[in-house]
Fold these 2 entries.
Entry 1:
Amino acid sequence: MGARRKQHKQNRRMEYRRWYRPLVLIVLVVAGWQLYERMPAEIMPIDNVKIEGTFEHLSRDDIQLQLKQVLTGDYFTADIEAVRTSLLSLPWVQDATIRRQWPSTLQIRIVERQAVAYWSDDSLLSDTGELFTPKQMTKEMQIPVISGPEGLHHKVWGFLVTLHTELSGLGLGVDRLELDERRSWSMLLSNGVELQLGRNDTQRRIQRFVKVFSMQNAPKLDDIKYIDLRYPNGFAMKSKTSQEKESGADLNNISGWIRHA
């Protein structure tokens, strides 16, 4: 008899446990949901946004406006990656890192793009080789203008770097470099002299130019308007005051012009 009662109690206890746990779980879920519904939208609002970086072309107002459009939620729920992606869409932003700083601050560090050249009339080339188009284009920066067929900006920039190295011995730089649709090169030097390099043997031609004008008895570059280096064994040049002259391998000095192969 006692054994039956004991078994009966055990069965009731097991039946109670079987219903008790799900019931507690349901109560907790309902209570949690009610608590969530009554909680404020932002438990820990972001009270401060620190923007760090050195800016020459970026506007802090543009950055703030971009943040207002995308920054939602609180300290814990703000979508940091969405904020970063939004900032990277600004033309002058090279990189952005965002960190939470306890208890209510977002720390944003922005790296501004460094432009090294104008590309055609509507874009800029960065020091990382990327083209970007600011909302407002000005030609106030003291950087060269390069142009060429679409997709060849890396090639044009690479040749510009080579030219600066070759011309450094003459104390010259390149203000404008163009690669046309026929893949022919032309340029404007920093002293205002125009050069035609053509399509082939461009580096050899520029080296010949540097060699000739490094000589003591070379014509003064300040007196020259235009030089055509496309000749196989020499070049033609036009002064600011005279007609075009030609030079050849077997000529030394004619009418005051030095002729070199």
Entry 2:
Amino acid sequence: MKRSSVKTKAAFLAFSTFFLGGAFLSGIAEARVHGANSTTVAMENHDDKSHDDYHYGNSGRHGRKHEHQEKYRDDNINSAVLNNNNKDANNIKNRIDEILHPKNHSLPNEKDLMAPIDFDDIQILGRPMATQQQCVDYLLRSNPYPNISVSPQDLVAYYYEEGELEGVRPDVAFVQALKETGFFRYGGTVTPDQNNYCGLGTTSATVKGAYFATARMGVRAHIQHLLAYASLREPSEPIVDPRFELVREKFGGETFGTWIDLNGRWAVPGYTYGQSIMEMFGQLFQGK
């Protein structure tokens, strides 16, 4: 009886060992398969990995090789990210320094851009002789409340900016605008809402002439119209003067380079049109 019991126990232990060992080995195998599948899925999600990576994930030696390659690549990526972050940080720091401590770029003095005062110079093209402030003061002495859509300072600045672009004397052009509009009192055919400062297209008492959306566009058209008379070159900016081509077609290759040349052309009959502009220009400097 005792021997039978011992044999039974031995048989039970052998069976248990066989069963548990098989389950254990099966678990290991399943785990390996699962791990291999995980590796495969991971590789499928990375387009930059080669097919050999699957190979590396299914064997111990190749798996370790794969791990080293992955670590090397990750280290390189981390290093690149760190370098980029450092560059971005430096760029931001430099930009902040530029804002907080701007460099002093020396701008040319307005008087350095001006020509010497010479009342015998009656050319349309050239540099200004008067400052912007002198132009503003001349306007406000005659009319403290000009009927314009921008400030006197802004309007004068437009003349200087547009005049510089085209090489037209902006101070005399501004004086011409004062003559044409009655120091921006208007009262004639042209009205303030047209932003038309030189009577462009106003051919009779019933023809109001051109309209311009902004004060700057009105100034640009004025400067371009002067350029059409005084030069054969094209404007630097797109043409907004509706009569620019008309002047070129009418006079062909002929140019009219002085303010006196505008007599009977810009204004009809306008026998002393240019002389009156130059007389007003002289008054600008005399405080009258």
